[in-house]
Design a protein that fits this description.
This protein is mainly α. It has nine helices and five strands; from the N terminus they run H-E-E-H-H-E-E-E-H-H-H-H-H-H. It has one domain. It starts with a helix and ends with a helix.
Amino acid sequence: MRRSSWKIRIFIGLAIVAFAFVKKCSSKEENPYTGRVQTINMTPEQEIAIGLQSAPEMAQQHGGLYPDERLQAFVDAVGNKLVRNSMARETPYQFDFHLLADDRTINAFALPGGQCFITYALFSQLNESQLAGVLGHEIGHVIGRHSAERIAESDFWRTVTMGASVGGDMGGLVGGIGQNTLLKNGRGDELESDELGVLFMIQAGYNPEEMIKVMQILKAAAGPNRVPEFQSTHPDPENRIEKIKEAIERYRTQ
């Protein structure tokens, strides 16, 4: 009886894993803006809805919005200039740019669907062209559908882990493999967004060399004890600088 029960568990576990792979293969599509084939299990409209729903909470986590309408208008102007002069204007995404009150955390990020954020701590160290580089990078995350891709990958590995757990004691190992896969892809997202940011800067009339200075600012802010690249979802600033230089040379000659 025990042997029969064990076989049933194995069968169910394998069925769950097979379902995860079939679902992943059927969810592949080519990004019309980057040309990259991705695993996506939601529509742009769903991405927009997630971003709009999550935006207030994300702002609250960083002390709310910065209470200076003049500076917020400046951020809006730079962000909208990038959108108007790039492929971003052709997408269904609703781009909004938020200056956060957080004056300690040097950070910028984007939610699915077009909600882009920058903390005052980072904003206060940038000139206009450097701000354009940061916002262009975040627009790149949205157009690259990186959050949607990570969500789909997370759903895949969660299902595979469940199947491995049902079929035996491999759930923890499989889950760890999934985390490593997500980590690797996250670095690729950052490099792709850097490249798109360079392109958007050039198209909007900004000096893309300022993106290199942004990387230097981030490196200085991290200090000598920054996390090694292989332990971080973000590539090392020095590695990003080399890729940015390559992108500048490529897009300037087009």
